[in-house]
Amino acid sequence: MASMAQEVLLQMVRSDYTAPACNRAQESWLITGGAGFIGTNFIYMAAERSSAKLVVLDKLTYAGNLVNLQPLLDSGRIEFVRGDICDQALLDRQFGTHGFQRVFHFAAESHVDRSILGPDEFVKTNVNGTCCLLQATRQAWEDKTDG
Fold it and tell me: Is there a contact between 54 and 47 (Cβ–Cβ < 8 Å)?
């Protein structure tokens, strides 16, 4: 039996899903933390079930491995951007360039042992980084609705 999160993700990437008032052929999705375990699995599922352009943003820290995505990179199915979700200017540029319709946020510091040894990095990525991503998303949405 699939979890609620799995069901939601499956519904969002199923092949017959059409976003309201959006041409699916022109859809562009941002996936943060895509070189990690969960992000990689999501990207493979999305690449198989969706025709959307997939842009993967990952800092490639201890949890991310670009080799995980190599077949999709080699085929041109995804675009990879190495960067930090705490970099507001980078996020703003990516939103401006791609006009994302969806954002899937998997970037996070998640190893408990590391959080005890260095809690500042966890706060920076998990709280401040998420805030930067939300600000970029909100700004892009406001720009679309104002224009």
Answer: yes
